[in-house]
Amino acid sequence: SWVDFVTFFNYIIDRFEMTKERNVHFRRLFPKEAIFVEIDEDKLTQVIDNIISNALKYSPEGGTITFRVKVLDDHIEVSISDQGIGIPKENIQKVFERFYRVDRARTRQLGGTGLGLAIAKEMIGAHGGDIWAKSKEGKGTTILFTLPYDPGQEDDWL
Ligand code: ATP
Ligand code: MG
Questions:
Q1: Cα gap 10→89, rounded to integer Å
Q2: Residue 69 has pLDDT above 90, yes or no
């Protein structure tokens, strides 16, 4: 269905912010205007839930998670950045593969099946977008994804 992505995203982030049990700060850098996109809300909620859960899992005490939405030519770019342990360069593509986890011992402790980002890739692909990661070990990780967006569409809402 058609939703304003900023409202939709804020709602998900609010849910995490109200229930988080860790000392991690949330920062939101969003455009002021509404951005109407056609999405499967349940599926994108699942995607974003996983990315935020990962960011929380790997964030250091007192760290900041930054949420950004950028409007580009014909798509929006959404990113979620943490200041956590990061992902080694050689593994950065693999995190989108099924059952892949960077460090078995560590993830055994933190839980998870290694499916979250593989599902995210499938679902973002089904929406016509891309998903990728940027990371520096010891500095943090950013997960970015795009969704198609038609700026001309806004006129229909006036
Ligand atoms: P699931 O999501 O199925 O519960 P998971 O979180 O282990 O399990 P993914 O979400 O697919 O699986 O992530 C795959 C792996 O990528 C993780 O196990 C972890 O090693 C690494 N990873 C993902 N996000 C981050 C992050 N923000 N910081 C550091 N490592 C990450
Ligand atoms: Mg996960």
A1: 31
A2: yes
